[in-house]
Design brief:
Length: 413
Amino acid sequence: MGHEQIRYLLEAAFPTPQASRNAPKPDGPHLRIHCLSVFVRDIEQSLQFYVEQLGFQVLSDSTHHLGRYVTIAPPDGTAVLALIAPKEDTEDYALVGKGRFVVFLSDDVHAKFGEWLSRGVRFSHPPQAEEWGGVVTGFEDIDGNRFSLVGLDSASREITAYKRAAQELEAARQVQSRLFPQTKPNASSLDYAGICVQARHVGGDYYDFLELGHGRLGLVVADICGKGMPAALLMSNLQAHVRNLCASYSMRPYIPIVIEQPQRFLQAVNQLFCETTSQEAFATLLFIEYDNANRWLRYANCGHLPALILRRDERVESLNSSCGVVGLFKDWTCSAQECGLSSGDILLLYSDGVTESFDGAGEEFGEQRLIDALQKYSGLAPEAMIRSIVQDVQRFSDGQQNDDITLIAARCS
């Protein structure tokens, strides 16, 4: 590809600010180019070039009637190349080595040039400054497919902004990971563990372990409406209210025959959540207060999916919803229920990212599969149990996770 052609392509890809403002903004479904095809003779030899010399990563590897098909991508970019090794008796075989129109963009062409040159990539010439403001060089793969490596100020600014956004997301992920419980309050009659596998860098699922005083433990699972960063901010808001109000909860005297305390606690949480969020914000929440000495629990299920209790005789019971979701109404009432646990019983709390995960045919994992998994892994320790259930869900959905997956498992001793 000539340097003038590259210039025209880049000007189209990175228009002036005025042209960008005047560009149409589609309101329909999202659309983007998935990959560019590069025809090669031998996949294994080509992978040595693209993976070992260019540092690309293999995304997929498959075979169809025309030949082998492997997708690859650079580790720090979004481009996807499809390496296709067509059979010699097909028309596509004539396309091997004819690739000419793939342009790689870098915010530091000279550094990338030096890196690839040290790995044995053969360039047609060193990076050259062009009159139109770009820096250009070129290279070929082992089959003669030609590529351009280009730097452009406007592109560099966009890449820098992309990197900064990625760094900020990673920082947000690390901050949010510290919001999940880092320690577990002692409960001699209950072995328990929790996990949250987020679908994105950050998410709206929340679980917690609370020290409630007087030998009581609090277990919490919540699911914020929405996804991504907005849900993560709401999640941190809810967590702060729960944690702050937890201190006043633990200072109140414990009267076994009175079950008003969970309601008052959650009504205060709901009041603060309403006051500090928009009218549309809400969360489903399941709160459990566990009495370590008596193996007794009180719970309030605020529009959340029912927790499961697997009794030692294999019976399954549900802790169903007892009131509405948190955050929609300031004038909100809450009711609590009670039940006991016996030695060997297992309690499982979860979010809808578990039961609503779906396979390629659109079928959901569902509650029954979750119950089957709970029974299958009932002999494991809680931490191993929830990790095994997560693996089952991920296998069912073929690794395509669309929502956060959160679980708490607890075994009564």
